[in-house]
Amino acid sequence: MKRFLMIAGATLLAFSVQANAEGDAAKGEKVFKKCKACHAVGADAKNKVGPELNGIIGRPAGSVEGFKYSKALMEKAAEGFVWDEAELMAFLTKPKKYLPKTKMAFAGLRKEADRENIVAYLKQNP
């Protein structure tokens, strides 16, 4: 019985974490205002100080044409790095800690909910 309760509890926790990880794209659009000075998304998105972010989820690092990436990011790209939700969540926490010598000057998003919401928003811009 004790084992059953532990398994049931772990399953419930897994479902609740998965639900939270989905984020809210509408809230993510609001949080993305912090990113707009350097990044763009949407049909008319162009590179700015940072690359446009359409289709970032599942995209190989350093692959936006016409953008000059940092040496640190290009080294990661050479290893076959692809942006997925987990990597983006980690990067957005503290970009300079995640990838030392990145060109991204943004300090990061402290709140996990903000990161989840931004990822949900970015997923809507393939």
Characteristics of this structure?
disordered N terminus; 126 residues; mainly alpha; globular; heme
What topology emerges from the helices and strands here?
Blueprint: H1 2-21, H2 25-31, H3 71-78, H4 85-93, H5 95-98, H6 112-123
Helix pairs in contact: 2-6, 4-6
Protein name: Cytochrome c family protein
Domain Cytochrome c: 23-126
InterPro entries: Cyt_c-like_dom (IPR009056), Cyt_c-like_dom_sf (IPR036909), Cyt_c_1A/1B (IPR002327)
Can you tell me about this structure?
It contains 6 helices and no strands. It has helices at residues 2-21, 25-31, 71-78, 85-93, 95-98, 112-123. Helix 2 crosses helix 6 (112-123) and helix 4 (85-93) crosses helix 6. Residues 1-20 have low confidence and may be disordered. Residues 23-126 form the Cytochrome c domain.
Distance between the termini: 46 Å
Which regions have little confidence, pLDDT < 50, spanning 5+ residues? Answer: 1-20
Q: What is the overall shape?
A: globular
Structural class: mainly alpha
Total DSSP helices? 6
Rounded Rg: 17 Å
Instruction: Count the beta strands.
Output: 0
Q: Strand-residue fraction?
A: under 5%
